[in-house]
Amino acid sequence: MQCPFCGYQRFYIKDSSDEFETYGFDCKSGDVCFDPGIDDASLTDLKDDTHIYCDQCAWNGKFKEIKK
Ligand SMILES: [Zn+2]
Question: Are residues 11 and 27 in contact, defined by beta-carbon separation less than 8 angstroms?
């Protein structure tokens, strides 16, 4: 899994109730790995249509677009 634009393997999602709250994760291992310290209870499951943002460039889109 990587950004289709720049190839970066780190992304973040925005909190559905607070757009200034973001949760980072990377996909280097092939699995989604959220940053340590993030409260699991506050995370919504990553679904195919979850909107994600590349941490390095302006790309953003649906989670399914980076899944292989
Ligand atoms: Zn990117």
Answer: yes
Query: Which two tokens mark 63?
Result: 């989670």
Read off the pTM: 0.85
Distance 54 CA to ligand 1 centre (A): 5
For the chain, the domains span 10-65
Phi, psi of 12 (to 5 degrees): -145, 160
Burial of 31 (0-12, 13-18, 19+ CB in 10 A): exposed
Cα–ligand 1 centroid distance for 9 (angstroms): 8
Under DSSP, the state recorded for 48 is: T
Q: Which of 1-5, 14-18, 27-31 has the lowest mean pLDDT?
A: 14-18
Relative to beta strand 51-54, strand 33-34 is unpaired
Confidence of residue 66 (pLDDT cuts 50, 70, 90): very high
